[in-house]
Amino acid sequence: QVQLVESGGGLVQAGDSLRLSCAASGRTFSTFRMGWFRQAPGKEREFVAAFSRSGSSTYYVDSVKGRFTISTDNAKNTVYLQMTSLKPEDTAVYYCAADEYYRARYYLRDNYDYWGQGTQVTVSS
User: Taking Cα atoms as reference points, which of 7, 8, 6, 19 lies closest to residue 83?
Assistant: First the structure.
């Protein structure tokens, strides 16, 4: 079992930055693929970012490329999502997730086994 707890969300203005954190406990998360998803009101939960199996590469949804960065601190068992140049359309609840089988389709929510409770990010125009 893995427990994931997100933090760092808030209300910001367009163009601002935020860093989300996801602290993992229960097992060492370096054995999992870690990813971030988000869900805006009335929309499906969508993929945002994840690591490759080796951890040496990262994947992003097109809408956040060049603005968001996923990273980890293995010593703290924490994964981060640094978000810059935020836009109102980035407003959503952000979730971190863990896939213990490194499934190929890293962008599918059903391929993740553990989820955090989510943290709200609201970007005003």
Answer: 19
Token pair recorded at residue 48: 């945002």
Predicted local confidence at residue 107, as pLDDT: 97
**How does DSSP classify residue 27?**
S
Which residues lie closer than 8 Å to 64 by C-beta, 6 or more apart? 48, 49, 83, 90
- Residue 21: the pLDDT is 98
Residue pair 22/29 in contact by the 8 Å Cβ criterion? no
Residue 113: helix, strand or coil by DSSP? coil
Condensed to tens digits (0 to 9), the pLDDT of residues 94-114 reads: 999 999 999 999 999 999 999
For residue 80, give the nearest of 56, 62, 96 by alpha carbon.
96
Q: Are 22 and 5 in contact (CB under 8 A)?
A: yes
